[in-house]
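User: Run a structure prediction on this.
Assistant: Running it now.
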Amino acid sequence: MTPHDQTTRDPTTRDAPPKATLFCPDCGHRSRFDGDWNVVETARTRRYVCPDCRAEVSSRPTDARADPRPRSAALWRAWGVGVRAWGRAWFRTVLPARTDG
């Protein structure tokens, strides 16, 4: 068995930046995602803007729970409640009330 020698490693792996590094496509600025980027947050996205040239580097969702599906599920639920209410009102007007007598 031979000892592991650090000098025999692939030279490209030593110079590789960490995975959390963002690169500006316009000016080549690079930094970690929590580094010196200008962060612009909206209701659904977080945009990373280069501090040097003001180019937008990345746009990511602010939160995994900000998925539009829960909002649409609530919309469908409200729609169903409205349809049932209209259905009950329609049946009351179309079908006469029973009178036992």
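The two ends are 103 Å apart (CA to CA).
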